[in-house]
Amino acid sequence: AAAGLSYVGGYVINTYKSYDNFLQDKYALLPAVIIICVAVVMFIIGLIGCCATFRESRVGLGLFLAIILVIFIAEVSAFVLGFVYREKVKTDVQATMRSVFEKYDGKNPESTVVDYLQEQLHCCGVKNYSDWTTTQWFNSTGNNSVPLSCCRQDMKNCTGRLDQPQEL
C-alpha cells in the first residue's frame, strides 16, 4: 500500500508540471506531498506491525492497533472535510481557470497550456465552448470562433467556428 501511495503522490507531482498555470496556488501540491508522507508513515507502521507479530509482543501489537485507529479516524475526517469543502475548491479552480483563459492570445505560455489541457481532456472552455465568447481573444479575432484545440480530434476540417458546435 505504501508503494502504491508513493507512486500516486509522485504521479500527481509529475502531472502538476503540465497544469501549473491553472493551479496558481502553490498549495495545490499539498495533497500529493501528504500522500507521500502517509506512504512513508504506512511503511514504518507496517514494519512495526510485522516486528510485533514476529516477536509476539503484546505492547507492539497494542501500539500497532492504536496507530491504525488514529489513521482510520484521520481518514474519516479527511473524507468529511473533502465532502464539506468540495464546492469551494470547485469554484476556486474555476475562477483560476477563467483568469488563465482571459490571458489567452494563442502565443504566450498560458495559451500553450490551455491548448494542451483542452486537447488532453477533450474539452473546450471551463464549462463549455460558450466560455470563450467572453474572452479578449474571442473579441480580438472577430471571426466568431474558438481555438482549434477545442475541435474534436476526429474532425479533420474543423475551423472552430461557433456556428458548427457539433465539431467542438
Automatic annotation (TrEMBL):
Protein name in UniProt: TSN36 protein
Natural source organism: Dromas ardeola
Parts of the chain that traverse the membrane: 28-54, 61-85
Gene Ontology terms: cellular component: plasma membrane
UniProt KW keywords: Membrane, Transmembrane, Transmembrane helix
Taxonomic classification: Eukaryota, Metazoa, Chordata, Craniata, Vertebrata
Domain of life: Eukaryota
Subcellular location: Membrane
Membrane-topology annotation of the record: Multi-pass membrane protein
Gene3D superfamilies in the record: Tetraspanin
